[in-house]
């Protein structure tokens, strides 16, 4: 499977100081890269707007991915559906009571919470957001993955897209 073909998204919650923070990522199931993300103090439509704007900036021009999600309210929203259509992204939503379609994204949340969050306390939302952003950059550019032949997600993506570009020229 090529990068930017099969993506997943969801929202997860973190306790930060006396409030909460919400992470909404888009995860590439081929490269294992978190290709776009947004952190917010609330899981609102503004977070989803920022997320899809960041995803649009990252998508290769000819990409026509499928984006898997659960049945969360944001993924059923008229704006979300229209924006995916505008970007040329097909949406795929898990059936009620079936989380298997989005299991890869849920697995990323497990890794993030095990490796980044557990055992750490954050006094300020801004501290959490800065450290989470740094961790996601680490995930994409430093964290080698056995399933990618020992490459980082960014290395795998770049290698695949380079080979693909050479094949098209």
From TrEMBL:
Source taxon at top rank: Bacteria
Listed GO MF terms: nucleic acid binding
Domain Integrase catalytic: 1-161
PROSITE patterns cross-referenced by the UniProt entry: INTEGRASE
GO biological process: DNA integration
InterPro entries: Integrase_cat-core (IPR001584), RNaseH-like_sf (IPR012337), RNaseH_sf (IPR036397), Transposase_IS3/IS150/IS904 (IPR050900)
Name of protein: Integrase catalytic domain-containing protein
Lineage, opening ranks: Bacteria, Bacillati, Actinomycetota, Actinomycetes, Bifidobacteriales
